[in-house]
Amino acid sequence: MKCAVSDFDRTFYVDGAVSRRNLEAVGAWQAAGHWFVIATGRNEASIRSALSKYGVKPDALILNNGAVI
Q1: Which residues partner with 5 through β-bridges?
Q2: In the chain, what are the helix, strand and coil shares in percent, each to the nearest 5?
Q3: How many alpha carbons lie under 13 Å from residue 58 in its C-beta half-sphere?
Q4: SS3 state of residue 14
Q5: pLDDT in tens, 18-64
Q6: Residues with Cβ < 8 Å from 20, sequence gap 6 or more?
Q7: Sequence-ordered list of residues with C-beta below 8 angstroms from that of 64, at least 6 positions apart, any chain
Q8: The pLDDT value given to residue 19
């Protein structure tokens, strides 16, 4: 198993949206048995709200600049 960690704003979520390409890449990555992790300065409510619009379910979250894991 491998783990990919991505920042959220302006990396995974660009111009107010998650691209189809990012969604497909994360889906394939997770389907292969790997973890996808979001690391962001956002709080949990904010990130879960943004991700739920796209059906993205990260395996872990690193939030509030590392204060919450």
Answers
A1: 37
A2: 35, 30, 35
A3: 24
A4: strand
A5: 999 999 999 999 999 999 999 999 999 999 999 999 999 999 999 99
A6: none
A7: 41, 42, 43
A8: 97
Residue 8: pLDDT band with limits 50, 70, 90: very high
Q: Is the pLDDT of residue 17 over 80?
A: yes
Residues 6+ apart with CB under 8 A from 3: 34, 35, 36, 37, 59
Structure tokens at 37: 């992790």
CA distances to 5, 15, 66 from 19, in Å = 17, 10, 25
| Residue 33 and residue 1 in contact, taking contact as beta carbons nearer than 8 Å | yes
Cβ(44)–Cβ(63) below 8 Å: yes
